[in-house]
Design goal:
Helix content is about 25%, strand content about 30%. The protein is α/β, with parallel strands linked by helices and about 210 residues long. Strand 7 and strand 8 form a beta hairpin. InterPro entries: ABC_trans_aux. This is ABC-type transport auxiliary lipoprotein component domain-containing protein.
Length: about 210
């Protein structure tokens, strides 16, 4: 009888572990932007977004009143957070501005005019009821006379609660706001002109005709 009870318990544990319905997965999915802004990027390659370790992990994280960042193994992101953040940001910038912004690696034969890099310092559902997305972004324009941007962002979205579904929703809203800021080249920072002329490959240029001796 004891063996039967042990076997039944083991089967119950196995069934519980294999029950996918107990694991929730949440999408990063900003709404389609209602407004449109001017296209200031043209064609741009977005480098993989740099995220804090807790935000790059597979679990949805939040901060508790003691200041600790916590998560639950049953509440996961539906995709790799860095990949989802990067692809979603590129798509939203394109949707809001009409620019052609594509996550690396660049797939088109014609190279991009600009390169965009985003370094996130904080992406957290804080204990004070605010989701905060802060960091810096950089836009590199290699053409002579091009404008290179180095700017910061500090986006804050109120949260009614810290449920994982709410965290996913407000994070999506924050990414949408960041996309608008990058599309308009907004935020505190500076703009530096590219001073060096592009390198010319002399071997690709036609040779001048030889003079008669």
């Amino acid at each position: 009888m004891r063996k039967i009870l042990i076997s039944a318990c083991m089967l119950g544990l196995i069934a519980g572990c294999s029950n996918g319905e107990k694991t929730a997965r949440f999408l990063i999915d900003p709404p389609v932007p209602a407004e449109r802004v001017a296209n200031r990027l043209g064609t741009a390659e977005l480098k993989d977004v740099s995220l804090p370790e807790y935000a790059a992990a597979g679990e949805v994280a939040w901060q508790t009143s003691d200041g600790a960042v916590r998560s639950n193994t049953k509440q996961l992101w539906a995709d790799n957070p860095q990949r989802a953040f990067t692809l979603t940001l590129a798509r939203t910038i394109s949707d809001i501005s009409g620019a052609t912004v594509i996550a690396e690696p660049w797939p088109l034969a014609e190279p991009p005019r600009r390169r965009v890099e985003v370094r996130v310092e904080k992406a957290l559902a804080q204990a004070d009821g605010i989701y905060r997305l802060s960091g810096r972004y950089f836009v590199a324009d290699e053409a002579s006379g091009g404008a290179n941007q180095s700017r910061s962002f500090d986006i804050q979205v109120p949260m009614p609660d810290q449920k994982p579904g709410t965290v996913a929703q407000v994070q999506s809203q924050a990414i949408s706001q960041l996309a608008r800021q990058i599309a308009t080249l907004g935020g505190p920072g500076s703009s530096v002109r590219t001073s060096s002329a592009p390198v010319v490959d002399i071997f690709s240029q036609p040779l001048p005709p030889l003079e008669n001796f």
